[in-house]
Specification:
Largest sheet: 5 strands, mixed
CATH architecture of the largest domain: 2-Layer Sandwich
Mean pLDDT: 90
Strand content: 15-25%
Number of domains: 2
Number of strands: 10
CATH topology of the largest domain: Transcription Regulator spoIIAA
Order of helices and strands: EHEHEEHEHEEHEHHEE
Helix content: 40-55%
Strand order of the largest sheet: 1-3-5-6-7
Radius of gyration: 16 Å
Distance between the termini: 9 Å
Structural class: alpha/beta
Shape: elongated
Amino acid sequence: MINHIDVSSVLRRTVCDLYSNLVTRPTGAAVRTEIENLLSAWRGPSLTVIDFSHVNLLDFSCADEVVAKLLLRFEGGAPPQDAYFLLRGVREDHLDAIEAALERYQLALVMQAEDGGLLLVGTVNDAQRRAWQALRELGRCAADELATALGEAPAHAAALLAALHERRLIMRFDDTYVPLGVAQ
């Protein structure tokens, strides 16, 4: 299932109906809490597109609250639902704050660029980044197919896929993996 959350609508509904600026830590915490409430109603594997298109200003404290702390809650598969996140509508000035928050907690996420392309932002090692890029080019594939594409041993490719999946950067379906944002 694919869900869509317009962050500016959540902000207006939760905090203030007058503007679309995500500033101050309490504002970010309120928006994150509302997003978590929405997520708790959705069951099963889900990809949630978090859309910043109509957010005018995003400061570092709100990026920390809305993005990083949301990812921390779901990383490693602790919650009962299988949730994945894709950011959309992120402008360059938003990206500075988001990247700083991701680096602070050693997190990463997938973002959809204006041209529709997928970008991996945040902290990942070179091997994981290479595996993610290869998977993005291949689409849906199994570990042995990724191993061939990377010129790596199947066990190493499987370990890379498992690490990317645990960090919620790719989705798993049976024995195959799919990058976020690619038609499932």
